[in-house]
């Protein structure tokens, strides 16, 4: 096809100056063939050039931005090309396999689990509600005397270029599509994941975090294109983890990441992409901790323990098939098979578009009961929930979990910015750490060194208090709060 590009009358073609190559001089009978050829040229050219050059060429008015096209059409074209690049890029690394060393590590890990009567699941839901083996950590050994834990979310920018997926921003109360008309900031918005990762690693070098809390949306825009037919991590899954996780976060992938699924991990507007394989990867790499859709894990620190409860709240984006097509996991339009959807029953998921909403809803109701029981049984110093959807989407539930069941903190994401709700939900503190850089932020990253749009959280924990710091892409702490365990009265100042 590349050899045929000159016949399209491509601007860079040596035939571009030849009258016979100009569309307006072609006969009507050949015009449709010419237009199809030009569409192919546009897609191939946009996909072939260097990413930064490509972004600039679109902004400058390249093929996608024909001068006679409406502004909305130009935006849609640019976003479509970006989506195409993102989705097809996963296929480029399909031949990558585990190295011999990693294969040996996986075998050892699976043997250790088998000794604990934990088998590799046949379905992604087999171990739902499991108490994952407890983790014992050494203290961070930093001058402040706390153990440090990092929290991050919405970080998995599309592969292979790690350009954040374009989001819609409200500019002066009007929705604007990125990367155009949204006050897009080159050098920030187009490399946000890498900027956050740089600060993530810099802070880690000083604070020595013992593990990471990961609130989901790990692989934009639609998770793994490999469907939900099995749990075992495929070559494509392993390649995505190598390129999207290990390569970006380096040595920090050598500590546990306690992780949950986000709506984009299911597919964003579909339920049938490879979410089950993210669970399966937990049985390949011990530091990717997502053995089920919901589970708990106790972490033993020196002198105290923390119970983490990992929940799947994606029911909040699972609607009836004809509702909210662009943000509905159960959408009729995007689940294929003439709207009937894919059968994910082999992986434990929904078996059709029609059953999708009820599958998510029933699962979430089950999780709520499970959480209440587990909180009441917990004797740890701290009880913390990690999930994807922001705490303000379920205010009354989290308030009840705090006041009645003793929940201390809720760690969330989904909204693409950094928020710290210090006792903002009738006494319970919540953070939203959706600014990991996998998708453009909710608002333009303005405000200089004080921007709250992209970043992560540092949780400094001791037995009696937790200091929460919101760190932005400039390495600045832009907000801070102190939390005390629900079971303890706040110390009275002397």
User: Number of helix segments?
Assistant: 10
Give the fraction of residues assigned to helices. 25-40%
Strand elements, count: 16
How would you classify the helix and strand content by structural class?
A: alpha/beta
Would you write up a description of this structure?
By secondary structure, the protein is α/β, with parallel strands linked by helices. It is built from 10 helices and 16 strands. It has helices at residues 28-48, 51-60, 71-89, 100-115, 192-207, 235-249, 263-266, 275-280, 353-377, 395-403, and strands at residues 130-136, 147-152, 168-171, 174-177, 212-214, 257-259, 288-289, 295-301, 304-310, 382-386, 409-412, 418-425, 428-433, 455-461, 466-472, 477-483. The strands form 3 sheets. Strands 1-8-9-10-11-13-12 form a 7-stranded mixed sheet. The longest helix is centred in the last third of the chain and has 25 residues, at 353-377. The termini are far apart.
């Amino acid at each position: 096809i590349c050899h045929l590009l000159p016949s399209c009358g491509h601007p860079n073609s040596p035939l571009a100056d030849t009258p016979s190559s100009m569309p307006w001089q072609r006969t009507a009978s050949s015009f449709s063939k010419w237009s199809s050829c030009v569409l192919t040229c546009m897609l191939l050219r946009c996909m072939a050039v260097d990413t930064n050059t490509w972004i600039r060429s679109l902004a400058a008015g390249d093929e996608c931005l024909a001068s006679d096209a409406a502004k909305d059409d130009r935006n849609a074209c640019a976003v479509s090309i970006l989506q195409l690049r993102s989705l097809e890029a996963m296929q480029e690394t399909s031949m990558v396999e585990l190295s011999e060393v990693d294969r040996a590590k996986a075998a050892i890990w699976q043997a250790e689990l088998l000794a604990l009567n934990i088998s590799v699941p046949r379905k992604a839901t087999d171990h739902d509600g499991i108490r994952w083996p407890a983790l014992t950590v050494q203290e961070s050994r930093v001058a402040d005397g706390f153990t440090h834990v990092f929290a991050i979310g919405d970080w998995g920018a599309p592969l292979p270029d790690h350009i954040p997926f374009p989001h819609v921003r409200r500019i002066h109360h009007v929705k604007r599509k990125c990367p155009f008309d949204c006050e897009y900031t080159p050098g920030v918005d187009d490399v946000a994941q890498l900027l956050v990762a740089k600060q993530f690693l810099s802070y880690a070098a000083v604070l020595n975090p013992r593990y990471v809390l990961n609130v989901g949306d790990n692989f934009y825009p639609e998770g793994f294109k490999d469907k939900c037919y099995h749990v075992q991590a495929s070559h494509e899954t392993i390649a995505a983890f190598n390129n999207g996780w290990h390569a970006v976060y380096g040595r920090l992938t050598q500590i546990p990441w306690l992780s949950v699924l986000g709506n984009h991990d299911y597919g964003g507007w579909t339920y049938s992409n490879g979410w089950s394989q993210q669970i399966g990867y937990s049985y390949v790499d011990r530091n990717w901790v997502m053995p089920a859709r919901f589970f708990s894990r106790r972490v033993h620190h020196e002198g105290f323990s923390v119970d983490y409860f990992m929940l799947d709240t994606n029911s909040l984006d699972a609607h009836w098939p004809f509702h909210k097509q662009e943000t509905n996991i159960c959408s009729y339009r995007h689940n294929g098979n003439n709207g009937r959807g894919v059968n994910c029953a082999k992986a434990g998921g929904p078996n059709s578009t029609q059953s999708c909403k009820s599958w998510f809803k029933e699962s979430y109701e089950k999780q709520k009961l499970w959480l209440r029981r587990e909180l009441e049984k917990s004797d740890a110093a701290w009880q913390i929930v990690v999930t994807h959807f922001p705490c303000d989407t379920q205010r009354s539930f989290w308030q009840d979990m705090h006041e009645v069941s003793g929940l201390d903190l809720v760690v969330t994401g989904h909204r693409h910015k950094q928020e710290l709700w210090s006792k903002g939900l009738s006494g319970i503190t919540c953070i939203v750490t959706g600014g990991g850089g996998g998708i453009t932020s909710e608002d333009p990253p303005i405000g200089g060194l004080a921007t709250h749009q992209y970043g992560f959280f540092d949780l400094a924990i001791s037995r009696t208090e937790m200091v929460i710091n919101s760190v932005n892409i400039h390495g600045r702490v832009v907000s801070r709060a102190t939390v005390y365990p629900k079971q303890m009265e706040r110390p009275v100042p002397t």
